[in-house]
């Protein structure tokens, strides 16, 4: 419970500190990327605090590059 509250408080603090600076500089795309990254990080942290089993990032890498690697190895045989 406290992990979730701390995550949300830290996310709001980071957003409150960084977003006005990005807005003053007129960096619209950077604000979008910052909010997306912060949202993904906060979501993963809350899921971890709730002890939801999360897949390894290696599974995604394997799914993307596995067929390419097999094709290259097949080509080089």
What layout of secondary structure does this protein have?
Blueprint: H1 2-24, H2 28-49, H3 57-76
Helix pairs in contact: 1-2
Transmembrane segments: 31-50
Keywords: Membrane, Transmembrane, Transmembrane helix
| Backbone shape | flat
Portion of residues in beta strands equals under 5%
Low-confidence stretches: none
Please report the distance between the alpha carbons of the first and last residues: 55 Å
Secondary-structure element pattern, one letter each: HHH
Transmembrane segments: 31-50
Keywords: Membrane, Transmembrane, Transmembrane helix
Give a description of the structure.
With 77 residues, the protein is mostly helical. The protein has one domain. The chain is built from three helices and no strands. Helix 1 (2-24) packs antiparallel against helix 2. The chain is flat, with a radius of gyration of 19 Å. It starts with a helix and ends with a helix. The mean pLDDT is 92.
